[in-house]
Amino acid sequence: MTVINGLLIVFLFAGGGLFLESSIRRRDRFTTALSAAVLTLGLVEICELILRVEFSEFAIKSWYYLMKILFWGLIGTAFLHKLSLSVQRKRQISSMTLLGILITLGLLLITQTTSAVDWFAPNLSPFTQYVDLLARNRPIRWLTDIYSLFGLGLVLGSTGYVFYKRMLHRSAFLVISLSSLLLFGQEYLYLRSDNFLADGAHFLGEASLLLTCWFYLSKSVPVLEPRMKVSALLSWGIVATIVILGALFRLRSYGDACQAVLTGDTGQFISLSRQEIFSLEFFTANRPAFIMMVYKLANVNPDMQITVVNNPGEMILQPQVYDDLNCLPGWQMAIAILSWSILAIVLASKIRSYWLRTVIPALILGFAYLPPLADWDRIIQSESLSFSMWALTFALSIEFFVVHLFKKKGWLRWLIFGLWGVVLIAWGFSRDTNVFMILWFVVCSILVLLIPIVRKRVSVPFLLSVAVFSLIVFGVQNSLFYHSDRWINSFFNNLNRHILPYPEREAWFIERGLPTPEPLYQYANLLGDYYSYDRAEIAELLTWTDENGSWLYSLYLITHPGWAFSHAWNLSDLVFTENLQPYFKPDLDDISPFPYVVGEILHPKTWAVIWIQMALLAGLIWQVIRPSSEPSQRKIVVVAVVFFLGSLSLLFISIHGDALGLIRHALVAVMPLRLNLWLFAIWLLDGVLPTKKPKQDRRKGDENANTLGAAFR
């Protein structure tokens, strides 16, 4: 399952539900049935996802019913309302269609699967197997043929009539006809040709139908109804249910919450947590201060003896309970549940569609609670807490900027700013590279102040305080970082990998005082881990590094931008190639494979997600530059652009930060870039909704919405 397939599922399911919600409000029977057909295709894709993992009798029956019966019944019903028939005759045909759909559902429920289950192959399409997987009784076969011909015949017949009469939107009818032909013929392609051609027809047919439905929604004049409190309460009830069920899933799906995995870095994290929190040594220790503070608050035993650790490629121990950790993984899990739940609720509150409001928390919590992210909670390192603090920072940034930044007064604004500031400090002090994205916040705040129209609407002193505070956090953390020695090992790794093997780069550093090549090559094997050696042995190198290393390497990146960017570009593909932690492998015989399959979709292993996000972001920007867009939409897009560009800059810093452990070190940027893909898709769909009530009266709106139907009459 590729990222494209995952996006297709999201767009079909979320978009189909959104279009259906809007069409029902407009009382347009044509787009209502068409939207329901798109939503049905989303459910079909979900059934196919299940069947690609393992055989499920429920999934194969649901797939057959949705794809072979319900979809074609809905398509036929949609175009039925475009025919010049009487209202009574349309109701009669619609009723007969619905009755046949219900009869087929009953027949499928009592149909038994055959012995072909024994050879079911998840890697093949259900189209190649459903004939043998279901008992092919004649009533089902007849109804399937009737519905397929009913739907396809009405689509092609209506298209021919539209072209004959030279009516409006002929191209849309043509696209729907081609989409229907592709979906009708995909079964033949799967049976008679290679899967690549069949998959292409499958994707093109569904995507074209989705875009055509999108087109009709945007072109028709809507008749908006007042937003009902019942619908709003229902949507929030579903959001609350998803948040609660997600937390229960996270608590119950990974065994004992206190099971932990120890790594080569664990010992330093634990032993350094003995430092006094308010001492300078605590903040200039060899590990980030926020992580050690959490360990200290969790009452981890700093004298814990660690004899065996897990290293990537050397799976020594499965997760187990260590009494000295005092259930530290449980603390990390609790913080993760709280952080991601807050992010889900905040983002849901910024969605206008009731349907999408219920979809976005499912996506966010699925992203956070599936193994690619949830497994890090067991590992005693900085990743879990860093991810959680990012989620809180992102949530409070959206709430702060979209709702409170443009308010001139109010204690709530200062409260949100205070919470945002505390979380920003925690995030900045959980991983050293994070502060460079905080510096990006400073740059963006200054750029916002340079725009006159924005400057008039925002409190300039307040925004300046945001910029100054962010700059202080960056400056303090960066200063403490360079007063510690935790950057030296990373510097040596970069020196050993990126400088010494290349004479021209080596010469640049030698001109600036780097010790001569001979002792450097003598120490080639220890540059990557200088902690293991007698410091007197490399005293000259350490002295030079302490005085010049950090700023000279930064200066080299600045003065050689071609190499710096090309190097980051070349390695960007590598950092996306893994999406599971490498420290332990769970026993797949004891757990369901579905969390890993869905996690594989939500955490794609290709850097193509960056290009897809750029396309989605371009669509978002196009939506908000229209005069009719709402201010809240524009603010969300601004936050999206800031965090997207900030994540790219963080990816650049992470790649150049340490030449070893590159994939793990870059996760702080890769994780947000993966999540943004799904957020941009939902925001793009939410932007389709009309923003203002049209001036036309209701009757006129109905006439405009049914222009094609009137033409048939």
Describe the structure.
The chain has helices spanning 3-26, 29-51, 57-80, 87-110, 130-133, 138-165, 170-192, 195-219, 229-252, 266-272, 280-283, 289-297, 328-349, 354-369, 371-374, 383-404, 411-428, 434-449, 452-455, 460-483, 488-499, 503-510, 517-522, 539-559, 561-572, 594-602, 608-624, 631-657, 662-665, 667-686, 698-705, 707-712; strands at 259-260, 320-321. The protein contains 32 helices and 2 strands. With 713 residues, the chain is an all-alpha fold. 42% of the residues are buried. The protein has 3 domains: 3-225, Rhopdopsin 7-helix transmembrane proteins (Up-down Bundle); 235-431 and 433-484 and 580-686, no CATH class; 490-559, no CATH class.
Summarize, please.
The chain is mainly alpha-helical and 713 residues long. Helix content is 69%, strand content 1%.
Keywords, separated by commas or semicolons:
713 residues, mainly alpha, Rhopdopsin 7-helix transmembrane proteins, two-stranded antiparallel sheet, 2 strands, 69% helix, 1% strand, disordered C terminus
